[in-house]
Target: TetR family transcriptional regulator
Amino acid sequence: MEREDPRWTRSRAALIAAVTTLLDEGRAPSITDIVATAGVSRPTFYQHFGDVPTACGAAGLERLRSQFESIPGPVDSGQGEDEVIATMTRLLEHLLAHRVFYCAVLNEAGERALTEGIVAFLVDRIVHVSPFGARLRARPGPHTSDRVTALAAGLVWLIIGWLTRDEPEPAAQMAARVIAVISFFTGASDASA
Model:
């Protein structure tokens, strides 16, 4: 089936919804569980995903993407630090609210592709939507892309470590730390430039 085919789109959405439901319930999904919950056949599963970890990774990215889309944007480059912290706090509160899901996704899809997908997504948000992006675009350099990728990878590692702790610190406190890291990396705290 072609990706533009509505049946393909519906079956993929049903599979991702099934994986999301199973992970939200704290279950380690099997292909049998996923297709039964989605109401599709096993061959349909394989048209979309090669294995369960890939399906879990897709569900994780989809939920994260939909959460980011609910955050107003593009962010005004004049947005103050308090507003940026509030936005980041909202995202971290989402991660905490769905902690079982995200920790299961990381366990089930603990592969490089998922991490790379999240990092690429954050790079896009940092460069094109965040108030720090204007600063990066104004001072492009030969290694700007590498700097932003390193920043996003570090943020992912920092947030995963926070999320998987027995007792994560409050979301607002973590958000302030994340913003401090972004400010340092992008030079946003440097008033001279």
